[in-house]
Design goal:
The chain is an alpha/beta fold. It folds into two domains: about 110 residues, Response regulator (Rossmann fold), CATH 3.40.50.2300; about 90 residues, Arc Repressor Mutant, subunit A. Helices cover about 40% and strands about 25% of the residues. It contains eight helices and 14 strands. A five-stranded parallel sheet has the order 2-1-3-6-7, sandwiched between helices. A four-stranded antiparallel sheet has the order 8-9-10-11, covered by helices on one side. The radius of gyration is 19 Å and the shape is elongated. Pfam families: Response_reg (PF00072), Trans_reg_C (PF00486). This is Response regulator transcription factor.
Length: about 220
């Protein structure tokens, strides 16, 4: 993810903000933090807004509506309100996604990644080469030592998200959101099976590395 992507974090809880900001910056994002609805509406929204719905001087739902009335910047609602009605209300106010506290940082990063891709702000590298492996993400083709490799749709999707972040660890939640459009698949054995099949078909099992407790990485070392 490019460091040019700017995030406006609207969060009044300093403990949460102090945990999020370093994680977002390690992911290559530029972060501006504000704590109130008034400051959120006065600030430059950047490329994406992480919006707490429980703010001390106003309802985040109204903030989202006001942002949406003047801008199409992506908004991810970050809140403790987890009821279905609250989710629907948040999405109808103009939010692009909804994350319920408490959440894993890896899930939030996966959702940021997915929203940026949907809105065209994050463009994957169209072609990635690692050793004798070549992944053409746009053409959805894979070659090893110039030999075409046949993958299923899900196997390719798993490989594509790893290739797009070549050399970096990709959380399981992010792989799941890209390949299955659901973070719930992250805890499933289904992903492990697809990764095992992918390694076998590539014939280069060392390229798809498991980072225990986190996710996977495509790399040669």
């Amino acid at each position: 993810m490019s460091g040019a992507v700017r995030i406006l974090l609207v969060e009044d809880d300093l403990d949460i903000a102090n945990a999020l900001i370093p994680a977002l910056r390690r992911y290559g994002l530029m972060v501006t933090h504000v704590r109130t609805a008034a400051d959120a509406l006065a600030a430059d929204p950047g490329d994406l807004v992480l919006l707490d719905l429980g703010l001390p001087d106003g309802d985040g739902i109204n903030v989202c509506r006001q942002i949406r009335s003047v801008s199409d910047v992506p908004v991810i609602a970050v809140t403790a309100r987890g009821e279905a009605a609250d989710r629907v209300r948040g999405l109808r106010s103009g939010a692009d996604d909804y994350v319920v506290k408490p959440f894993a940082i890896s899930e939030l990063l996966a959702r940021i990644d997915a929203v940026l891709r949907r809105t065209g702000l994050l463009q994957p590298r169209p072609r990635v080469t690692v050793g004798d492996l070549t992944v053409d993400i746009e053409a959805r083709t894979v070659q090893v030592a110039d030999k075409p490799i046949s993958l299923t749709r899900k196997e390719f999707d798993v490989l594509a998200v790893l290739a797009a972040h070549h050399g970096r660890v990709v959380p399981r939640e992010q792989v799941a959101l890209y390949a299955w459009q659901s973070v719930f698949e992250a805890s499933s054995r289904t992903m492990d099976v697809h990764v095992a099949n992918l390694r076998a078909k590539l014939g280069r099992p060392e390229l798809v590395q498991t980072i225990r407790g986190v996710g996977y990485r495509l790399g040669s070392d």
